[in-house]
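Bench notes, bay 3.
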Amino acid sequence: MKHRKEPPGDKNIIGTRVVALRKAKKMKQKEFLARLQTEGLDISPTSLSRLEGQYRLVQDYEVVAIAKALEVSVRDLLGEE
C-alpha cells in the first residue's frame, strides 16, 4: 500500500473520514469508484485520491453520493454522529 508523502490538505473535512470508512469496509479505491458510479458520481481515481488527501474541494451532491456508496449517513460522514 502506498502512503502519502505529504500531510493532508485543507480543501475538505471529509477526506480522512472517507478513507477510514472505506478501509473499515475493506474496500479498495477501485471498488469504491464503482460504487460511486452506481450512485451517479463518476470521478477519476486521481480525483478520488485528491479528495481523500483533502487536496480537492467536495461538492454537496458528491457528499450525498459518497455517503450512500459507503452506506453511512451524511452526518456520520461529516463526523457529526
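Next record in the batch:
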Amino acid sequence: MRKHILIVLLLIVLIIGAGLFWLSRPDVAKLDLAAVTGPRPTITEPRKQLIPTIAVADAIGWPQGAKPVPAAGLAVDAFATGLDHPRWLYRLPNGDVLVAESNSPPRDGGGIVGWVMGLLMNKAGAGVPSANRITLLRDANNDGVAEQKTAFMTGLNSPFGMALQGDWLYIANTDALVRVPYKSGDTRITAKPELVVKLQRGGNHWARNVIADPASNTLYVSVGSASNIAENGIEREKFRANILEVFPDAKTFRVFAAGLRNPNGMALEPHSKRLWTVVNERDMLGSDLAPDYLTQIEMGDHFGWPWYYWGGYPDQRVEPQNPALQEYSKRPDYALGPHVAALGLTFAGDAKLGGGFTNGAFIGEHGSWNRKPVSGYKVVYVPFGDNGYPAKGAKPVDVLTGFLDKDGKAQGRPVGVITDRTGALLVADDVGNVIWRVRAAR
C-alpha cells in the first residue's frame, strides 16, 4: 500500500514539475520586430504567461575607451562621466544642462515577487539606491564636454522630470510636483521646495515626468500605473496611468488623458505644438505583444489600459471587464515594437545633426527585460512630415546602438534624450553613468 502511495505521490510531483517547467519556458518572438512597428503593426493572438519570459541583459558598464555606435554621418563622445544613475535631462535657457540622478524609491512589500523584482533590478543595473540629486552640467568653453559639474539640488525623493516656467523650476518627485525659484546662471538651489500637487506613489512605475505648455501656462505630469494590468484592484490606480494637467497658480490638477499604462517622455511637436508621449505597454502576453508606442495626446483621450490595448484589443485577464470602453479606446499613432521600454522623447526642432534628422522624434529605448530576443537598448528616430505626424511608411531609424556587447550584455542603457544649445543630441545612460553627446561628423 505504501509503495502505491509513494508511486502516486511521485507521479503528482512529476506532473507538477513538468507543468512548472513548461510554464517557465521563455516565449520566443514569432515576428520580426519591424512587423510590430509603425502606424499599423501586426497584432497577433496573445500568448498569456503565468511566468514571464526573463531575458534582461546583464549590466556590465563600458570598458575603458568603449562607447556606443552612431549612425552614418554622426559621431559620439562623452559629454559627462562619473554620474550616479543619470535618468533624465533638461536644458536651461542659458545652455546649462540639468541631469536627474535618480532611481526607484524603496519598494513596499516583499515575498517572492519582491525578491524576484530585486534580482531583476540588480541584473539590469537598477538595484542601486537613488542619489536623489539633480546635477548641473556646464560646457563653458563649448568644446562638447561639461567641465563643470555641480550638485544643483539634493535631498529630493526619486526626482525625474524638470521644467522651467516663468521664474519657477518644477521638479517631479515620485510623490509630488514641487517648485523652487530660479534665476539664469544659478548653479545651486538651497531654497526649500514648495509643494504644488501631491502625486500617487508606490507600486511599479515610480518615475514622474513634467513639461510646461507655454500656450496655456499649465504643466503636464505623467504618472504610470502601479501594476501591470490593475491586478491589485482598479481602486489602487486612482490618478495613475494618466497624464495630468496641473494648474500651478491654483495648485490643482485634472486628468488630461487616461488609459496610458506608463507614459514617460513627453514633448510638444514643433509644427502643431501638440502634446506627444511615449508609452510602455503591458507584459506577459508574449514576446510579440503589446507594442510600446508614440502618440499624440488630446484632452479626454483614453487609450484603454488596463482593459484594452492598441485601440480596442481586449485583455481577457482583466476583471471585471469593461465592454463599454472598447469603442472609445483611442488607437495610438505609431508602434515602436514590443517591450522596447521607450522612455526618452524629444523632437528635432533645433537639432543640427544633418541628413534626415531634421523633422522627427528621437526616442530613448531603455531595453526589454521580458522578450526573447531582446528589443530596444538603443536610440531611434521616427521621421515626421510637415503635418505633425510620422511620415507615411516611416520606420524607426537607428541613431545610437552598441549598448549591448557581442555577448548580449548591457554596457549601457539609454533613457532621457534632449538637444543641447549647439544642436547636438544628449543621451542619459543610467548603466554606463554617462551622458553621451551625438553630433554631426566633421
